[in-house]
Amino acid sequence: xxxxxxxxxxxxxxxxxxxxxxxxxxxxxxxxxxxxxxxxxxxxxxxxxxxxxxxxxxxxxxxxxxxxxxxxxxxxxxxxxxxxxxxxxxxxxxxxxxxxxxxxxxxxxxxxxxxxxxxxxxxxxxxxxxxxxxxxxxxxxxxxxxxxxxxxxxxxxxxxxxxxxxxxxxxxxxxxxxxxxxxxxxxxxxxxxxxxxxxxxxxxxxxxxxxxxxxxxxxxxxxxxxxxxxxxxxxxxxxxxxxxxxxxxxxxxxxxxxxxxxxxxxxxxxxxxxxxxxxxxxxxxxxxxxxxxxxxxxxxxxxxxxxxxxxxxxxxxxxxxxxxxxxxxxxxxxxxxxxxxxxxxxxxxxxxxxxxxxxxxxxxxxxxxx
Length: 370
Prior knowledge:
31% of the residues lie in helices and 20% in strands. The chain has 370 residues and is α/β, with parallel strands linked by helices.
């Protein structure tokens, strides 16, 4: 499946609740719906409200450790109305990629857990546990039981000519105790012993989201996530709208420093943003206004004035910051070279680097932690 969509501009306005403006929510799980075994506070209630408004809820995860049916059972334990068909995993996206490259029944070596075994079976491929089975491919996904023997055996198979697929390259995963190494860390361990890079199925690469859009029959999908480099970048890669929520890995400082392909269409505190209308930002000169807030960058610091909802203030802050970072370099004033017959051409004066603009005082001013 391919797409010719183009993502809406970052910080776009939406004059109706997102739950009615978009037909399908493509929800990242870790850090958005749950952290470890427990739901993000108020997430289930907000999803039930969005579903009542007619929005179909799809659950999209880079984590390949569990089959879709098991993920659905976990989500149902929060009181959500969900079945296995509502869940799409990077394991399924990877298995689909392999099925396009190799015929049914082909042996595939698994570095991972039951999520990969279930996905390969779904697509008619034979999962094997050893390179002695002469696999045509190796598929690697996160599972807490992955060990050195699995990694070494996968490297042996790849070096013997098996094609390598990775479900995702997330460096970390959120857990109840904090960040922990993710599949990207384990992929790097294998990469150190082979001479090729894997084909990647998960976000931000397009296969997982394209598979999700197809399976969920989405016409106006909205990607929702906490990670800029996977969830939001993935939405840009397939040309769909995105909502960033502040319940997971990235924070407002990360947003302000985000490159263009990681800037979300909408921002919200959590999944309650699905029930909200989202104000756009108007720009007059250096001043960026969102409802009651106006922000501008002065001497590499954001200055914000006004009052209102914190996330309207955040939109103004982000718009001002991104405009300052994206502004073309200003020509420097010409100065005569001492003792020379003509002046040298001055070098342009660069704008502020991403992440160098001070935000703490502005964030505190709008009611968000600095």
